[in-house]
Amino acid sequence: AEHNKEANFPRIIKQIEDILDFADHKKEKGIIHVTSFDYQKMILEQISDKYLCRMECCVVPYNKRPSKDILKKIRKFETKEALLDAHEKSKDPVVILSPSCWFGVDLKSDLGRFQIVTKYPKLPLENVKIKQKKQLTYGDDWYDMRTVYKLIQGCGRSIRNVEDHAKTYLLDKNCYEVEKNNKVRPWFLDSIKELG
Fold first, then answer.
1. Tell me: the pLDDT tens digits for 119-129?
2. Residues contacting 127, CB < 8 A, separation 6+
3. Of 10, 19, 116, 154, which residue is the least packed, with the fewest Cβ within 10 Å?
4. Dist. CA 179–CA 196, nearest whole Å
5. Model pTM score
6. How many CA within 13 A on the CB side of residue 190?
7. CA 109 to centroid of chain Cα atoms
8. Cβ atoms 170, 148 nearer than 8 A
């Protein structure tokens, strides 16, 4: 799995850069959802310098930090609250890059006109409690539903009411697994458009 992640990353980086270059998005704020600090670090290390100055990140665990050179080029914050406060106040077209903004983040109106989901947000099986629940009789259904719930929540960070609008880009083909889940609301399924 680790090899696949690294093999697919140049394509993901290219897609992110292409999206950031769309005419509208050059002038808009947005968010890039990642599933771990490892993914955040990989993006920061591989994305072109042209885009680094737009990135806003929380300071990450020491062993997950990119180089000092990269840290000088991004906007970094000690807490998620400080990050969100600065994002709201900024006049620049900044982009949050975070594994911790899937829930409880309000990027209404111009605070988030686009969002990029880099990877289907499966729950980490390294977590003992998640692994135990997945092994129960209906554990696979529970696991799939929790993953879908996280994806839907992430997609809702930039669309906060019926008048709001944002574009969502799902870069991982596994995100389309949500279409097979019969518990997902039709309005969400209708909103999915493939990048392409």
1. 999 988 888 99
2. none
3. 10
4. 18
5. 0.90
6. 3
7. 18
8. no
